[in-house]
């Protein structure tokens, strides 16, 4: 089938709320990343997002406002990127906009992302593809993770089994065997608890290179308690979010015992161990003999976490996706450019072996410009 080859834009603002990633990607033949940039999210917007991730008062009004506010930020980020790269809007075939996840309840059958695509189309004058998760949910899937299809398309090898590990706010793996079905699912927290604890005690958005965690000693009893959460023991398909992994959950667990007497640094070390163990347990359970592991997402910059994963996953080799030709910071945004390309060309975007959907299907709605 002849597809529309050309330039697509992917926009991603993930569960970490660290920024809005925009990736400009040539697709259709070999993928080429033309340019990428991360734009800040204003503090008031972050607060509004966090305020909607848990049930509360006046939700519809607050969501309506946020939907517009985020769309304006996404459109401004796209327009800025086009200007920076000296590109015309007529050069872009479509934008794939993930939106900001507000609530993800796959067992109830919904996943809600904010950032009105109509407004993005109006303010960029470019066609927008958005609402990628709900068609997969409509066919009984989790609606997440979606990037494994992109990982399979870009990073699969016929010689050696590979695992692509995204460490964002949450962590998810994609298992790429040399033959047979691709698997993938969320393993649990990525940086979300590390970030929240670091902010609480040091007023910093994240633990630079994991140095604070590395200064503490993890507590085995607290780790065991955190690891007893049913999510870690469920069989895939599975996906998660801030609904489960948040500071209130952590505090609840700490308050249940004397663990709250641990020093903040020891608790940070325990959270790093929780992230590392939940990831390594998942990879080991896949029983592929020493797969090559490639990391993407902001967690790739957490030296202490990567160090610990190397120990736990020996003798597998661990590198970032940079070794496969894609900088770890832009994989997710590039994936949404690719998903836009798939949708615009009438190609499926989900993998039933990952999400549990009953069929492969085209993901996303098309919002025309003009
Ligand atoms: N130098 C660093 N040292 C330690 N951690 C870092 C560093 N740089 C980024 N991070 C971590 O990476 C996070 C951002 O990761 P990323 O952008 O992949 O998340 P996301 O896309 O929001 O999440 P998700 O994949 O769950 O949607 C930051 O919040 C921080 O925890
Ligand atoms: C509902 C939602 O936004 N989930 C995110 C989150 O962040 C990581 C992990 O949890 C993954 O399931 C997903 O993001 C990527 C982009 C995905 O769908 O593959």
Automatic annotation (TrEMBL):
Keyword set includes Lipid biosynthesis: no
Species name: Neptunomonas concharum
Reactions performed catalytically: 1,6-anhydro-N-acetyl-beta-muramate + ATP + H2O = N-acetyl-D-muramate 6-phosphate + ADP + H(+)
Identification of the protein by name: Anhydro-N-acetylmuramic acid kinase
Coiled-coil portions: none
NCBIfam families xrefs: PRK09585.1-3
GO molecular function, one term: ATP binding
InterPro entries noted in UniProt: Anhydro_N_Ac-Mur_kinase, ATPase_NBD
Role noted for this protein: Catalyzes the specific phosphorylation of 1,6-anhydro-N-acetylmuramic acid (anhMurNAc) with the simultaneous cleavage of the 1,6-anhydro ring, generating MurNAc-6-P. Is required for the utilization of anhMurNAc either imported from the medium or derived from its own cell wall murein, and thus plays a role in cell wall recycling.
UniProt-listed Pfam families: AnmK (PF03702)
E.C. number(s) listed in UniProt: 2.7.1.170
Family recorded in the similarity comment: Belongs to the anhydro-N-acetylmuramic acid kinase family.
GO biological process, one term: 1,6-anhydro-N-acetyl-beta-muramic acid catabolic process
Lineage, uppermost ranks: Bacteria, Pseudomonadati, Pseudomonadota, Gammaproteobacteria, Oceanospirillales
Residues reported in the UniProt entry to bind ATP: 14-21
Enzyme class, spelled out: transferase
Pathway: Cell wall biogenesis; peptidoglycan recycling; Amino-sugar metabolism; 1,6-anhydro-N-acetylmuramate degradation
Gene3D superfamilies: 3.30.420.40
Keywords (A to Z) from UniProt: ATP-binding, Carbohydrate metabolism, Kinase, Nucleotide-binding, Transferase
